[in-house]
Amino acid sequence: MKMSMPVKATAIAIVVWIISFLIVTAIAGEFYGSIVMTIGSILVYLVLALALRSPSAHDFYVAGRDIPALVNGAATGADWMSAASYLSMAGAIALMGYDAMPFIIGWTLGYTLMSFTIAPFVRKSKTYTVPELLEKRAGGWGPVRSVAVVMIFIMSLTYLTAQLVGVGVVFSRFLGLPATVSVFLGVFGALAYAWTSGWKSITWVQFLQYWVMISMYCLPVFIAGYYLYLWAPIPHFTYGDLITRIEAREAAFGLPAWTEPFVRTVGGGKGPVNWIMFALVLMLGTMGLPHILVRFYTVRTVSAARVSVGWALLFIGLLYTTATIYATIARDSFSALWGKPISEVMTTGWIQKWLPTGLVKVGDKNGDGILQPAELVFHGDIVVVGMPDMFGMAWFIAPLVAVGGLAAALSTADGLLLAMSTGITRDIYKRFINPKATEAGELLIVRILLVVIGFVGAVMAYYALKDPGFAVYVVLLVGWAFVFAACSFTPIIMLGIFWKRLNRYGMLLGMIVGMAVALPYVIAVGIFKAPPLELFGDKISTIGWGLVAFFANAITAIVVSLLTKPEGPEVERFVDSMRLPD
């Protein structure tokens, strides 16, 4: 059977990439070989994107509605896992232990709920974007669509900033540049795929990226497990003894046990109530992310939308079950340095490699020449990419892991860039300004906006990386994006599907009130470090507060809808058409 043109082009690009890596390494050495490895991966994805290019707006916006469920599931997994899951989640758990577990619990359960509460109904709506879906549910009332676009920008720019921070971390290690500079290089990779053919090229590129990132994510864990004798036959079943050793070491320094719950501050909050709210917000936010919801527009049938969520959950689970092992091994590595002379610590291989990036800092606050736990500070996002260095693995393992990290960050950045640019073009420009715009003119505007939005995201990532004390910036930034999704889209979409009485005024005011409750709190507590509010005796984190905003949205939408007139029979028929099987 003959290979299709995209498969053939990608295969050739991979072969050229590997040969180039071997030649450059043999001639110029490890440093330039690492650069070829990381930059070459971006070029391979670009080749595939170019091979799939299409002038059709139908391909650009919804991939021609022709993506198989398995492919869509893997692409969704790649889109979802992002820099937060690949680079940052393990770092958050390594630093905060039990108190960071809501990231895994909330994000995973959110997909389970999405499979039967939202995914098939969104596909059945036969719309192109989330704002278009909400406008149709509001009886064609334009203000709902316009406000929905604003909501997309608030959550997606936050999310995009986190991805570019992750790209900066990866590039800083292998290009020898500060992470604050590297973000501007990384944004061009994300723009290249989205520029070619929108969701069609992005989906197939992300399908390839998933397999790259999951294999590269697991590789150093298995190698480190071998060093630590964690085989039975894989580390997933044998790392309990390692946790015991870590906690014994920490007890010697008077620190609380790593697995002890509710003792560490996450996002400004602390305690069991905050922990539960934290997990629920991430769960609800999962169901309202526009760059994930658009995935259900690209599959062939309604049942394929549901099946693709199942595949995505399986593919995501492969990474999430490995993240805690990363965290444990990393915790063991950096805590092993406590109590050693500062001079010895400074000559440790992985410390030397990461100090120039500005993402690791070693001090001697009490002047005793001995490293105390508080005197080793590092950005949580280096845990995954830095693990090969911590164990002195073969030099080419680190760039391989970086290739996976770039795939994770860039795959999500692609989707976010496209969600925002199409939000302005299709949902604002074509809907209100120039309804007669040609496909060519429409796509030109999308591509211009991609560049503008990408640059704005890079600037925001630059300032995020300038905060050296924020050790888990990527995962927290992503958490804020979930807050904004949970307080804007999730209640409205769920009510719109299952409650016919919801009307346009309830939808509009629900989104506005939800965001008005969430955004000031995130800015005040998360950015300006204001003291968090207390609820049932617990300090509520910026992410946990999203549950308050979620209910503010839902209650406002219900009350306003009951106090104003219902939508007409046309909207009721539309709701029925989404809910009834074909």
Key descriptive features of the protein:
582 residues, mainly alpha, Sodium/glucose cotransporter, two-stranded antiparallel sheet, two-stranded antiparallel ribbon, 72% helix
**CATH topology title of the domain at 52-215 and 268-321 and 405-579:** Sodium/glucose cotransporter
Q: Strand sequence of the main sheet, in spatial order?
A: 1-2
How many beta-strand elements?
4
Average of per-residue pLDDT values: 87
Strand content: under 5%
| Name of the level-1 CATH class of the domain at 52-215 and 268-321 and 405-579 | Mainly Alpha
Number of helices: 23
How would you summarize this macromolecular structure in one to three sentences?
This protein has helices at residues 5-28, 30-51, 57-62, 69-96, 102-117, 119-124, 130-137, 142-175, 179-227, 240-252, 272-286, 290-293, 302-335, 342-346, 349-354, 382-390, 397-433, 439-465, 473-486, 489-498, 504-527, 546-563, 569-579, and strands at residues 360-362, 376-378, 534-535, 538-539.
